[in-house]
User: Which sequence fits this backbone?
């Protein structure tokens, strides 16, 4: 979780930390667990949760476990709506062509990325499954590596980032899920920085797949502008 600084509202910061915490625990947490994780007194946590409940951003079940509320759906719906609307048919074409799971990933902060959309193949015998909204470190997995590769080189960057910069797409092996290959390319001109990619069990010709992903990312970038 991010740290609070002097220019921020500590109360709002703590409330948002609770939402981020609950996003990582879909089965819910107790009030005590929330207070300990956020680093506030249980009474403070209670007030924060009550406020979030009033706005339908979290809820309690009959066991008094707290989880995210349905109000977040209404808030999230407009977020990157144009990007998702344009990306879906492009990702569907990509997954139909490869029989692999396609994903749309956006840079959320300096150190992490979030899966905004997952499109699973309709005719594959087996495929990789991910949860939309999943957050991963930006320097792990092909999606984040592709986004990093779109920026100028920095000291200490992974060799995989430099390689992705030369190739026009990034490849990772088992970094997000064991035994899964990721191949991603950045979407030119997208804001926030965005990549599209595939998650595969095997890639006999990763250069060919990488070129297909890169071409598809360029096409989505054209659609966005």
Assistant:
């Amino acid at each position: 979780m991010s740290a609070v600084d002097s220019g921020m509202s500590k109360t709002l910061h703590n409330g948002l930390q609770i939402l981020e915490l609950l996003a990582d625990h879909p089965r819910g947490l107790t009030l005590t667990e929330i207070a300990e994780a956020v680093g506030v007194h249980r009474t403070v946590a209670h007030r924060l949760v009550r406020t979030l409940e009033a706005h339908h951003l979290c809820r309690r079940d009959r066991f008094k476990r707290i989880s995210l509320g349905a109000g977040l759906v209404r808030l999230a719906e407009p977020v990157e709506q144009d990007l998702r609307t344009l990306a879906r048919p492009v990702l569907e074409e990509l997954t139909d062509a490869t029989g692999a799971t396609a994903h749309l990933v956006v840079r959320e902060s300096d150190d992490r990325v979030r899966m905004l959309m997952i499109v699973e193949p309709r005719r594959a015998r087996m495929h990789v499954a991910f949860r939309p909204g999943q957050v991963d470190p930006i320097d792990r997995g092909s999606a984040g590596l592709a986004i990093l590769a779109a920026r100028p080189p920095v000291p200490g960057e992974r060799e995989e980032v430099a390689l992705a910069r030369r190739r026009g797409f990034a490849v990772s092996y088992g970094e997000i899920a064991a035994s899964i290959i990721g191949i991603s390319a950045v979407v030119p001109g997208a804001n926030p920085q965005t990549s599209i990619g595939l998650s595969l069990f095997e890639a006999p010709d990763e250069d060919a797949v990488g070129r297909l992903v890169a071409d598809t990312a360029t096409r989505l970038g054209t659609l966005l502008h």
